[in-house]
Amino acid sequence: MNSTAIAPLAEPAPEVDRRPIHPLWMRITHWLNALAVVILVTSGWRIYDAAPFFPFTIPTVITLGGWLGGALQWHFAAMWLLVFNGFVYLAMNIASGRLATKFFPVTPAGIWHDALAALKGKLSHADPRHYNSVQKLAYLFVMLDLIVIVLSGLVLWKSVQFAVLRDLLGGYEFARRIHFFAMAAIVAFVVVHLVMVALVPRTLLTMIRGRAPKA
Q: Most buried of 11, 41, 177, 184, CB within 10 angstroms?
C-alpha cells in the first residue's frame, strides 16, 4: 500500500502593521511645536539681552526681533502657538492612549541599561515604533519642562494678575531664572535630538512621512 507523505503546513506570514508609525496629528503638532520653540528661544535670547542677569549676553546674530519690542511680539505670538498646539498634542496623546503605550513604563533600571548601551554604541534603533527608556525619559522631561516654561512665562508676562503663581515660583526675579534655565534645558534637548537624528537619519523621514523608509 502506497503511503503519501504529508508535507508540513507552512506557518502563516506574520501580519504587517500598516498603521503609520507617527499619525498625521502627531506629525503636525510636532513640527508646530518645533517652530514655536525655535521662535521662543531666539526671541527670548533677545529679551534676555535687554536685561541680562548673568555676566554674558547672547550674540545678536542668533536672536530674533531686532530690538526688545520686536522680540516681545515674536515671543508672545510663539507663546500662544505653543500653548494651544501643545494642548492639542497632549490631549491627543492622552485620548488616543499613545501617552501610556509609548512613554510608559519607564524605570530607573531600564534607563540605566539603555544609557549604558547607548554609550557603548549597542542601543538598537531597529524598531521605530518602540522608544527606549532614555527616549521615554527625555520626551517626558520635555513635556514637563515646556509646562514650566509656560507657567514661569505667565509670571513674567502678567506678574500682578498671576500673583499666586509668582509667589509659588519664588518671586518675579526667581521666575526669570526658572524661565531661563528651563529654556536652556530645551536647547540642550534640541542639540542632542539633532545629533541623534544625524546618527539615525531615517527617524527624520519617519517624522515627515509617518512611515519608516524601506530598507
A: 41
